[in-house]
Amino acid sequence: xxxxxxxxxxxxxLYMWINLGVLxxxxxxxxxxxxxxxxxxxxxxFPFIILSGVYIFILYKSFLFGYDxxxxxxxxxxxxxxxxxxxxxxxxxxxxxxxxxxxxFVGGWIVKDSQKFSINKILLSIPLIITYLIGPLxxxxxxxxxxxxxxxxxxxx
Length: 157
Fold this sequence. Notes:
By secondary structure, this protein is an all-alpha fold. The chain contains eight helices and no strands.
């Protein structure tokens, strides 16, 4: 049975499932941010357990294919080395899973933080969509919105 799972989940299939699998979490965050469903499924540890399993599976597959994990440290040597790393589909999937998990975590944090200040959920959907697509820009837009609701600027909270 494990061999069937291993042969079914190629890198392309895994990429498709990660992208489709994260969409329900984002839709719940955007349309139902204050619901029990959001609190139980999205802003809890649940999606990160799933994404961690995917991450471990990709690392396992990389290990079996003889991936050079020490070569990952070359990304700090320059842009050319980073671009060489992105030519490997296994490294690209590790990066993509990492990116998806961090964006989802930040989206969950935005929803939890917005509940402290009772930010309008329609207004909240704008930084959530931008966080899904562009990550740091969405956090910045949320921070601007938060300043008006909190009526103060706090850089360390």
